[in-house]
Every structure is written in structure tokens, then in C-alpha cells.
Amino acid sequence: MAESSSEQEALLAAFSAALASSRPSLLCKPRPPDFTLDDLRESLAELAATTPTTTTTPATTTTTTAATTAAAVAALLQDCGKRCSLPGLGFEDPGWTAAVQRVSEVPWAGLIHGEPAVLLHFPARAAFEARAEGRETLWAFHGTPFENVWSLLNFGFVNAAQVTPGLGRTGADRSAFGRGIYLSTDPALAATYARASKPLPGNLGCWICLLVCQVAKGPMVTVGGQGAAPADQHGFAPRDAAHELPQDYIVVEDTDSVSIRGMLFWRRPGTAKEEGSSVEMWLCLVVLLGVILYTMCTRTQPARYL
Q1: Stretch 97-107: mean pLDDT, rounded?
Q2: Measured CA distances, 161 to 128, 177, 194, 254, 258 (Å)
Q3: What is the pTM of this model?
Q4: Where is the PARP catalytic domain positioned along the sequence (predicted)?
Q5: Which CATH fold topology does 89-268 show?
């Protein structure tokens, strides 16, 4: 169970971001039944106020509906938290211990916003363990817009290779090297895809998440610079364009060949003023990107991959 208040806050932030997204009916799953999306939004202030690490002042008036909804959401978060930590990790999951060591060696201060505030751990899925039997496994990172985190936390990479409308996740544009689940052995590369949330309700601030995943190598898994493994007893065929995948990239086409084993969360305060500054920063980045693209396109021999 997620025992610390910081873990509870991370779960609440993930739920809040999904609810505040442009497609809440798809991304905010699971959610308490029998409540409208507006009811859920109204309950967020009360939920944030009851989270010990937030500085929100509780509302002076609370409707019965808001209180009931908040209790239902709190129960959902608690149930979700039960899957986020295991006792005796160093003994029951030695592979994860190695992953934590890898995470601790990353210079996060130069990549995101210092050390992660929260680290959630998940056991490997049974389907992944079956697929990984007899195969070499490796650890990789996956960056995603924060609004996708709640869905990923609860459903994993289900149908993520096709980015189906039923899940509503953003990221369909990540198919430059073929369709699949994109990961990287380089945390700096994965971090470029980890888009921060907007300032969330209840003074929750802005959040960023990076997923730590375990990958079972095989014919439906392409590792940049190595290509795909040959077909095996399961009859899976390798990717046709395996040799084109750049170094540090991994593309997984078989969802059972990858399992989310951990989530790294970063939190920073977020205000309306800061959000405005963020818009200005993005405008500057767009201008800079335009200059870079213009320079690349006017070369005699343009880069193969943009």
C-alpha cells in the first residue's frame, strides 16, 4: 500500500490530471461510478485539503455530494495504492533492486527537476513473466504526457501500440520508426517525452512522470543499433525496418513483452503566473525549433531522421 503522504499526493495528482485533460471520459479510468465528471472535479479541492503534504486551505462549505464523491475517490486511490509497493523489495524482487540502483545513478538534476519526489514500484505482470521466460531482459524508460499516467498506472500498455481511441491517450505521433511502444535505455532521451501537467487544482502544483519498464527481448522488440531478434517458437516475426532504429531507442510491438515496474514522480509548485511564463517559454522554443528545421532543410544532404 502507498503509505507515505507523498505517494498519496502523486496518485491524486495523476487522477486530477486525467480529470482535467481534454478527454477526461477516456483518460480518467477507472473512476468512481455514479458520479458525473463535474462532481469529481468539485471533490478535488476537498481531497487535496485532506492530503497532509498540500498547503490547501479546506473549503468553508462542503456539499454532501462533494463529500461523498471525495470519499469515493479517496477509496479508489487507496485501492490503487495497494499495488504500488511491496514489503522486502530487496529480497522479493532482486531485479527491481538493480533497477533502483540504475535510477540512483542518473544525474536527474540536469534532466528534470532534481531527484524524484516519489518512486512507485509494481510487480511484474504475469503475462510478462511468461513471455520473459528464457529471454534476456533489460531496463528502459518511457516518457509520456502526465495526463496519461493514471490510465497507464491502472491499465499498463494495453493496446498502446495502436494508441486506440478507447484509451484516449495522447502520443499517436510517436511512430517515426514504426508503430509500437517507444522506450529508451537513455533516461535523458525518455525525459524529453515526459510532458509536465498544467498547475493542478487544490494547489497540487505541476507534475512530471517517467516510467521505469522491464523489457523482454524478442522478435517483436527492436533495440536501436541491434535490430530485432529472429523469430522464435511463438512464431513472431521481426520488424522489417529493424536496422533503421537509432541508438538508445526501443520499440515494442508485443505488449506482453514489456511491463511497467516503476514510476518516478517530480513535483513543483504551479501558479497562474507560472503557467503564463510557461506559455512564453514554449513560444520561444517553437521559434528556435523553426530556425533549426529551416537550417536542416536547406542543407545539401538533410538529416535522415527529424
Answers
A1: 90
A2: 16, 12, 18, 8, 11
A3: 0.76
A4: 127-223
A5: Phosphoenolpyruvate Carboxykinase; domain 3 (3.90.228)
